[in-house]
UniProtKB/TrEMBL annotation:
This is ABC transporter ATP-binding protein. It comes from Nonomuraea spiralis. Keywords: Antibiotic resistance, ATP-binding, Nucleotide-binding, Transport. Its main location: membrane. Belongs to the ABC transporter superfamily. PANTHER family: ABC TRANSPORTER ATP-BINDING PROTEIN (PTHR42711), ABC TRANSPORTER ATP-BINDING PROTEIN NATA (PTHR42711:SF5). Gene3D superfamilies: P-loop containing nucleotide triphosphate hydrolases. GO terms for molecular function: ATP binding. It is a peripheral membrane protein. Pfam families: ABC_tran. Residues 5-228 form the ABC transporter domain. It is found in: Cell membrane. It comes from the Bacteria. Signal peptide: none annotated.
Length: 303
């Protein structure tokens, strides 16, 4: 199947400043791809290149199998920018109806259904919309024409928790329908909850692309075991992946890199009365990648 996004060596410089360098990435049809990084890492530059808002310094990109400069591609893509400018005296509903006509005709019922899901009041003039309501209108226009690819830049900014959950439910529905979502964010929890894969970008470079399940397997987790009697420290020392070991009487605390199989087998020699495993999240994984990249960058700087 044709990739939803195919980038090869995609690079963008703003004068001497690097916005993005040598991005090679394939996003598959029907997947949710999380694009992670702090502000200034290169996420928005990537999105603008995909949408042909800016042109690359070098490299190439294809969106839905086409050159993004092709006008026909744009009607197949939904886009929510990180900074959404909605001004004017027109009601939000009139604005959305206008966009619907431009995109080839979007049923009014579709707009109304999305507005109901997001609890959006579309009777308010756009210039009077709060930040949260502007974001709701932005989400409605991104999804309403049922595009094959939806590109979202910081999609939950300004939304209350209930609307965030409704948004994530909609993203899952889009995937079920076989369409693709690229979601750029620095809010790791929301990306973790829906993404199939994530890319981590730092200082304009893609430093990792991983399945979310594989990332969790690699992640550090904290474990705590309690036994019915004191246990010897020697039973848990030197186990693969076990570090920061603390043995105090009948309790064992440690951190685990990767799978806890060796620790579980060692604990099975004794009577376990209680076990607590703190499930890792992408925050820790993300920081691990960033600290590794920081060390790599520092070594290059000092070389």
């Amino acid at each position: 199947m044709t990739a939803a996004v195919q980038a090869e060596g995609l690079t963008k410089y703003y004068g001497d400043r690097r916005g993005l360098e040598d991005l090679t990435l394939e996003i598959r049809p029907g997947e949710i791809f999380g694009y992670l990084g702090p502000n200034g890492a290169g996420k928005t530059t990537t999105i603008r290149l995909l949408l042909d808002v800016i042109r690359p310094t070098r490299g190439s990109v294809r969106v839905l199998g086409e050159d993004p400069r092709t006008a026909a591609v744009r009607s197949r893509v939904g886009y929510l920018p990180g900074e959404l400018a909605l001004e004017g005296r027109d009601q939000a509903l009139d604005y959305l109806r206008f966009l619907g006509r431009v995109r080839g005709g979007v049923p009014g019922s579709r707009i109304e259904a999305l507005a109901e899901r997001f609890d959006a009041d579309l009777s308010v003039p756009m210039r009077k919309l709060s930040k949260g309501n502007k974001q709701k209108v932005g989400l409605i226009q991104a999804f309403m024409h049922e595009p094959e690819l939806v590109i979202l830049d910081e999609p939950t900014s300004g939304l209350d928790p209930l609307v965030q959950q409704e948004f994530l439910a909609l993203v899952r529905e889009v995937r079920t329908a076989g369409r693709t979502v690229l979601m750029s964010s620095h809010v790791l929890a929301e990306v973790e909850s829906v993404s199939d894969r994530v890319g981590i970008v730092r200082r304009g470079r893609l430093v990792a692309v991983e399945n979310v399940a594989a990332l969790r397997e690699k992640a550090v987790r904290r474990m705590e075991l309690h036994f019915d009697a004191p246990v010897p420290r020697s039973a848990f020392e030197g186990l693969p992946g076990v570090r920061d070991l603390r043995v105090e009487g009948a309790s064992v605390r440690c951190t685990i890199d990767g799978r806890p199989d060796a620790l579980v087998k060692a604990a099975a020699r004794f009577t376990v009365v209680h076990l607590v495993s703190a499930e890792p999240d992408l925050e820790e994984i993300f920081l691990t990648y960033y600290s590794e990249e920081e060390r790599h960058h520092d070594r290059q700087e000092s070389a």
